[in-house]
Design goal:
The protein has one domain. Helices cover 42% and strands 16% of the residues. It has five helices and five strands, in the order E-H-E-E-H-H-H-E-H-E. Strands 1, 2, 3, 4 and 5 form a five-stranded mixed sheet that branches. Helix 2 packs antiparallel against helix 4. The chain is globular, with a radius of gyration of 18 Å. The model has no long low-confidence stretch (mean pLDDT 95).
Length: 172
Amino acid sequence: MHVLQYIAVKADTPEEAIHQVRFELESMLGNDGSTTSWYDWFVTGGGRFNQESDPYTDGQINMVVSSKDSEAFELILKDCVEARMSEFNRYRDEWNRSNINLEAVFDEFDGAMDYSMRLYGIGRMIGMIQGDWDFNSYFYDLANWSTNPVHMTKDRINNGTLWFLVPVDFHY
């Protein structure tokens, strides 16, 4: 499956921002082919979500957004948070319809996992609330290692730091 996420970095140019994102994301994949991340490959610059590029051409800068364009920057952040909340609410609706008695699940637990998916949705919601970075995040701040844009926003507004939002097509 594929998801478009925006990765925030401090940089001087869109090209430098793309380079930083690629370097960090590649390092998270590991050198021996074994992944330590939720994704198994990616395309910086938007990949299949970039209408002006081949889906597998890495490093396109036409979708990279600078914090100098405050309106576009804020709109992307808003869209990312809304997408995350949409996923959260979908999991919440599924959980509410499931009528699973969580206390009974806890009482029945004998120390061995049961391989069921019955707690998947609540697990995803807890991860989102705790700020886990995964396919439901839509935004990730590489400088602060956070799915919360508040740290980047404070730095951008209070210090005038130049930030870029780099679109990345993740496969997972």
